[in-house]
Design goal:
The protein is of the alpha+beta class and 425 residues long. It has 9 helices and 22 strands. Strands 7-8-9-3-10-11 form a 6-stranded mixed β-sheet, sandwiched between helices. Strands 12-13-14-22-21-15 form a 6-stranded antiparallel barrel. Bound molecules: adenosine-5'-triphosphate and magnesium ion.
Length: 425
């Protein structure tokens, strides 16, 4: 099975960059999800790999074959790229049975005998568990069964790479969960490379071996799901993955001689943040300045190129949300001593005493867990407690920050600094 390599791929319409200098390596047999908000460029990326859209510049390799190269003028047509495509709005032929729907593409290939086609149809129908419906028409199937027929139809010609663009978007929550688990099994049993588009972060988290998170055409992070969750590259990524969302807490202070960040946060509370890695902020700043200089040099070089078109849809530092009981936060220009702490809901511990005093603002039990919103001064924090715990709204509790996975970000660049622990003073 092939590996897919995208090198410096850009797709723009006028000065609108749908995909902006994307480098991506999709490993053989992996299950990669392209994730990001609506309009970020997921479908465009997929269509370029499949050959349904021509990149403005860059190079794409599938296995040993260069299928696109703007410099060399190579552009292999879609039907020669051996990829299977399941569109967002898959449509089954209503006048054909399930069997005919699956067989249709195979007949068109003109490389299989009737008997071979029959074998393939029955085999893929078995894989997605619809062999008992082969004689039915699509209208006689439930939504989930139709979806499976569409998947079977995509699998039938044995594509080496399978692209799926939001294939589960039409299903109800329960069926989605079931289909997700079946897709995971399917990936395992077929041993193919799956590239899967979704804007549902839960789907991306649960299915992928690697998540490719895109925003405004720019790759934000490409890592295994738990790395994206635990060590997000920037505030945007931290906010995009995780449900309930991560808490952002503004913190100001400097690093003391012992290496701890002496922070003031949530009003006038004092706390010490200790980096897991023993990071020195001075070193981090030096590295960041160097990276910034490199980025700037690259930008300047691009701007000199006569063919270069300035990006109209500018990239901006993510405007992280801070939940307040009422009103909006006052935005001030950050200094180098201003930071943002990312605290996942499960890292907030509710206790009887000690820590910071808080008031239960709302409590939403699901049975398995309870999402509690806590009021600290004018701030609202979201915590998740496992088990069916009841909290009286308005009652006073205390909170602490457990776990060593709190994430510190630079407020000015929005980029991650490192993870660590927070101890209240
Ligand atoms: N032919 C076109 N001409 C101009 N702009 C286009 C064209 N096709 C797509 N775009 C723009 O490119 C951007 C990326 O589109 P794309 O379809 O890749 O988004 P997406 O990430 O798949 O979003 P969604 O989750 O809504 O499906 C969008 O802002 C879209 O408006
Ligand atoms: Mg799309």
């Amino acid at each position: 099975m092939p590996k897919i390599v995208l090198t410096d791929i850009t797709k723009r319409w006028g000065d609108f960059y749908a995909v902006d200098h994307l480098d991506l390596v999709i490993d053989d047999c992996s299950f990669v999800t392209l994730l990001g908000p609506s309009g970020c460029g997921k479908t465009t990326t997929l269509r370029m790999i499949a050959g349904l859209e021509t990149p403005s510049s860059g190079r794409i390799e599938i296995g040993d074959t260069v299928v696109f190269d703007s410099e060399k003028g190579i552009n292999v047509p879609a039907n020669k790229r051996h990829v299977g495509f399941l569109f967002q709005n898959y449509a089954l032929w209503p006048n054909m049975t399930v069997y005919q729907n699956i067989a249709f593409g195979l007949k068109n290939l003109k490389k299989y005998s009737k008997q071979e086609i029959d074998e393939i149809v029955r085999r893929v129908a078995g894989v997605v568990k619809i062999e008992m419906f082969l004689d039915r028409y699509p209208s006689e199937l439930s939504g989930g069964q139709q979806q499976r027929v569409a998947i079977a139809r995509t699998l039938a010609p044995e594509p080496e790479v399978i692209f799926m663009d939001e294939p589960l978007s039409n299903l109800d929550a329960k069926l989605r969960l079931e289909m997700r688990s079946e897709l995971q099994r399917l990936h395992l049993t077929t041993g193919r490379t799956f590239v899967y588009v979704t804007h549902d972060q839960m789907e991306a988290m649960t299915l992928a071996t690697k998540i490719c998170l895109i925003e405004n055409g720019v790759l934000q992070q490409y890592d295994p799901p738990l790395d994206v969750y635990g060590k997000p590259n920037n505030l945007f990524v931290a906010d995009f993955v995780g449900s309930p969302s991560i808490n952002f807490i503004e913190a100001s202070g400097v690093q003391n001689a012992a290496g701890e960040m002496d922070f003031t946060l949530l009003g006038d509370h004092r706390a010490a943040f200790r980096f897991n890695s023993g990071l020195k902020m001075a070193d981090w700043r030096k590295r960041e300045a160097q990276a910034d200089a490199e980025r700037e040099a690259k930008r300047a070089a691009l701007a000199k190129d006569k063919k270069h078109v300035e990006k109209g849809n500018k990239d901006q530092v993510f405007d992280y949300p801070i939940a307040l009981v009422e009103g909006e936060r006052k935005k001030t220009a950050p200094t180098e001593n201003d930071y943002v702490l990312g605290v996942r809901p499960e890292m907030i511990e509710i206790c009887a005493q000690g820590g910071i005093e808080a008031e239960v603002y709302s409590a939403m039990p699901t049975g398995m867990e309870t999402t509690v919103r806590l009021k600290v001064g004018s701030f609202l924090l979201t915590g998740v407690v496992f088990g069916g715990v009841t909290y009286e709204i308005g009652s006073r509790v205390h909170i602490r920050f457990k776990d060593s996975g709190l994430i510190l970000f630079s407020r000015s660049s929005g980029r991650i600094i490192d993870t660590g622990t927070l101890t209240l003073r």
